[in-house]
Amino acid sequence: MAVQRIKLILILFFIPYCIIAQEEWSLEKCISYALENNIQIKQQELNAQYSENNLLQSKLNILPTLNGYAMYQSNFGTTVDPFTSSFTPNNVQSGNVSLSSTMTLFNGFQKYNTIKQSKFDLLASIQDVEKMKNDISLNIASAYLQILFNLELAEIAKNQIAITEQQVDRTRKMVNAGSLAKGSLLEVEAQEASEELQYVNAKNQLDISYLNLIQLLDLDSTQSISFEIEKPLLPEIKEQELHISIEDIYMDAVDTLPQIKSAEYKLKSAEKGLAIAQGSRSPRLSANATWWASGYSSALGMPDLTTLSMDTMISGFTSSGEDVYAYDYNYDTKPVSLTDQFSDNKSTSFSVSLSIPIFNNWQVSNAVSNAKINLLNQQYQLESTRNMLLKEIQQAHADAVAALKKFQASRKALSSIEEAFHYTQEKFNVGLVSSVDYNLSKSQLTKARSDLLQAKYEYIFKTKILDFYMG
């Protein structure tokens, strides 16, 4: 994984040189904590889970649908039985149930392309998570380096105060002995006050750099009170020219970095989106099946033959005036059970339907046009991402070369300034140089050490950025 690679690259140049108290945070601990707790990463992971759910749903959409329906109705007073169509004064209860299923047999491969599109969306979301993790890791490493830089800067300022305190003590003795004027002591004391101010400023910068890292980690107030980082031993600077070309770095980065892979997956998703839109022009073939059980009525009854009785009755007269008799059957009814009614009234149907799109207000044409626009936009986005990566690599390479040259020049300048300062210090000790010249030489030495320190950290970070791009 890309995030594991960047963690390894950033951690390898921090080699602990002693056993550290448990409350101190190493670079690895800072990065691991951020990757587990950073809110932006968690939000990006939620987007990936959302895409995963969409992929699962697109696969499930291939399955047929199955839906049930049930109806119950109760009528009071004189009403028409909906199933016997006869008036009844009694309370009538009725109902029916049904099951229906539909399955798409062909729709222009839209469902198949939707699965492919959802898969590419998920892969792009996963790469977006990796990109977010890489960005967070780099930001934390930069903040961590800034703390180390400010720690050493504060240490340099503190050491300069210690040297100046010795000079103040020595000058005071010489003034008391009458070897130097009191003005020399005042000048050295003024230098000491100036260096104390520089030390306070360095400590303030250190506190700010700590605050930046704490905010990146989103630590709570309890954790931030005792927050301290490990002070590792940095590796020796290898003053070798950067022989690898920008083109080689770019080719490696294009094959591995998540932002490129994400843009490529989004382009493939747009291609499937176009196929889905074009599938709307295709006829749609679907199959439908229905099971229906209807006609239940509490008013429905069947004759009870055990109570059958027959009477004769005059039903009319003939033309000659004779009586016409008819039989009158009397019997009681017994209710028909729910299961019997459903069994008698059930039915099953199966159908196949074909829908052919002819005219739909140009909705399909506009959808295809929009899908083509989105595809073209994703092509531009991929090209823009690659161009941005190339610019970042060019800048990182130029920064690394410049940092190496700055480090070499700063080290050379420091060597010369140190010799000049030692010579000035010796002359100052015997009274051949004024305190003004001595303080000027000392200020130049402090600046040279700060410049070298800054150049060292810049070179280390810039070279590790190139290592990250190269994989």
Layout: helices, strands, pairs:
Blueprint: H1 2-12, E1 24-25, H2 27-37, H3 39-60, E2 65-75, E3 79-80, E4 87-88, E5 92-106, H4 110-176, H5 182-217, H6 221-225, E6 228-229, H7 246-256, H8 258-279, E7 284-297, E8 301-317, E9 323-335, H9 338-345, E10 346-355, H10 363-429, H11 435-470
Parallel strand pairs: 1-6
Antiparallel strand pairs: 2-5, 3-4, 5-7, 7-10, 8-9
What does this structure look like?
- By secondary structure, this protein is of the alpha+beta class.
- It has a single domain (2-300, 336-470), classed as Outer membrane efflux proteins (OEP) (Up-down Bundle).
- Helices cover 63% and strands 19% of the residues.
- The protein is built from eleven helices and ten strands.
- It has helices at residues 2-12, 27-37, 39-60, 110-176, 182-217, 221-225, 246-256, 258-279, 338-345, 363-429, 435-470; strands at residues 24-25, 65-75, 79-80, 87-88, 92-106, 228-229, 284-297, 301-317, 323-335, 346-355.
- The strands form four sheets. Strands 2-5-7-10 form a four-stranded antiparallel beta sheet. It has a two-stranded parallel ribbon with strand order 1-6. A two-stranded antiparallel sheet has the order 3-4.
- A hairpin with a 6-residue loop joins strand 3 and strand 4.
- The longest helix has 67 residues, at 110-176.
- The radius of gyration is 45 Å and the shape is elongated.
